[in-house]
Amino acid sequence: MSELSLLLVEDEANLGQTLRDYLRSKKFNVDLAATCAEARVKFAQMRPAIAILDIGLPDGDGISLAREFRKLSKECVLLFCTALNDPTLRVEGLELGAEDYVTKPFELKELTLRLDRILKSRQITLHNPDEYRYGKLVFWPKRFEIQDADGHISSLGQKECAILELLIEKKNEVVSRDEMIEKIWGENSFPTNRTIDNYIVKLRKWADSDTSQVQITSVRGIGYKLEWKGH
């Protein structure tokens, strides 16, 4: 794997240095920031492909910082790494487009496995069409954006993007949760049904803005289906 730029935002000095050195050994080009202020400067300078953020920081919080980063770059992979195992924060992070949420303590290898799977999923999107149109609904996979029937454009996280592409690829067929997990998370990952549902929420809202064209439905106990009513 060629080196990818990665911004690590962690205020615990020992942990930050350990993570930085480990990720560098895995061929990531890592820069470390200990505060929100420092992270903003480094993000603007390096425009990283990946940002790993702690949530509790001395001068702010990682959720708000990630929201700022998302406005600056729709393509940066966002991942939270925190001791705060709060379901509300987890959902808030996913809603703004974060790819994953790792709770401390964790094994270093677990973090790199998660990154590998995220990046593998990201590569899938690079070979697909630039644009899908369903009436007034538009999906730009390379831009990680969708446009609803009212013309509002929203950003997608990496997993949301990969899920939508998979549903489009299998349009009018049921995509099982097992298939979704294997292709997007990897066979050794075990996201809960609620985690997957959280990713589906924004996609369903997008489709529901023009149900004459597309509907995303849940098939109880199995998975999801994108029903395309076009020709």
UniProtKB/TrEMBL annotation:
It comes from the Bacteria. Gene3D superfamilies: 3.40.50.2300, Winged helix-like DNA-binding domain superfamily/Winged helix DNA-binding domain. Coiled coil: none annotated. The modification 4-aspartylphosphate is found at D54. Residues 129-228 form the OmpR/PhoB-type domain. Keywords: DNA-binding, Phosphoprotein, Two-component regulatory system. GO terms for molecular function: phosphorelay response regulator activity; transcription cis-regulatory region binding. Pfam families: Response_reg, Trans_reg_C. GO terms for cellular component: cytosol; protein-DNA complex. Residues 129-228 bind DNA. GO terms for biological process: regulation of DNA-templated transcription. Residues 5-119 form the Response regulatory domain. This is Response regulator transcription factor. It comes from Peredibacter starrii.
